[in-house]
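Local shape tokens:
==================
===
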Amino acid sequence: MSLSLEKMVSGPVKDIYALVNGDRCETRKYLEELADNPREAMMANLQRMADTGWAGQGDNRIGHLRGSEIACEFKEHKTGSRLMFFMHGKRVVVCTHGGPHPGRPEYRALVRKVERLREDCLREGILP
């Protein structure tokens, strides 16, 4: 596996990256497939995180995936679009992939995928 990071958004508080596997970037591909309005809303969420960080409990556009302290998601509520990510340290956010709000059967697999990708990044030593 050849993993790398591509910087998507940078701000005074956080740097947000997309995970690239070889020449494939699931995050970029997902964002490109979204219609203009949901894509713009998702990019605004990323910029808000880079500029101000995570507001915490009151911010329903960002959240942990149930059952994980590692796997998180950016949410776009009108279409149900989600962009999965994990954090590394205080400054680094790594987006792994996107998709619709998961149903119950897919949820645990989604959490495991984000956690596994984080472990792969740590093993390959690519996190800043």
Summary: Residues 3-124 form a domain with the YaeB-like fold fold (CATH 3.30.2310.20). Residues 10 and 123 are 24 Å apart (CA to CA).
